[in-house]
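step=predict obj=Protein-L-isoaspartate O-methyltransferase n=218
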Amino acid sequence: MSQVLSGSGMTSQRTRSRMIERLREKGIRNERVLAALAAVPRHVFIEEALASRAYEDTALPLGFSQTISQPFIVARMIEVLLEGRELGKTLEIGAGCGYQAAVLAQLTKEIYAVERIEPLLAKAKLNLRAIQQFRVRLKYADGQLGLPEAAPFDTIIVAAAASSVPPALLQQLALGGRMLLPVGKGEQYLLLVEHRAEGFVETRLDGVRFVPLLSGLE
Ligand code: SAH
């Protein structure tokens, strides 16, 4: 048993650095983002049956019809949020298994993550504990409503596609803050929302494919 574990540990190191090389080839330039992804063992967040595919640059099933985000998308979104600034107090909507929250926790001290499917939240807790990541404050909540008790946030990152920007999230975005979310029903794209003195400025970025942002709790 311990042999199997140390064996897969070594494989994980090698395949993890290959994953980082692929992210570089695909255009991720921010070294802090690459280092954050390199520091998080993605296989811990994935079902054992799929663990051999943990460092492929693909989305993988999490159960409950949800998927763990593709490393490139995680890297790309964080790179956009980090450009020219720090993340500051961060809210992630859609924690899933906790992978992206673990990456964010490498880059900011204050990180909240909400999830609407209770068993997934429980999984995220176990996964984050397994990698000794105690910084992420996980909450069982409908993220469409944000997290009023901890608002305002400097950064909001949404891991599921909304049909339009949830108004509560705009209200909870601090002045100078940045939110990045996938928007759209069929065709989806990433929308960057910046809260400037003159108002909210929206910029449409890459086409993407995310699971839908849903209402209520499960
Ligand atoms: N961040 C995850 C991705 C999970 S997939 C990762 O690192 O892999 C998106 C997640 O968003 C799913 O777990 C889904 O249950 C969750 N979700 C969808 N709508 C939500 C809502 N309104 N509030 C909170 N979580 C939501």
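step=describe
Confidence is low (pLDDT under 50) at residues 1-7.
step=end
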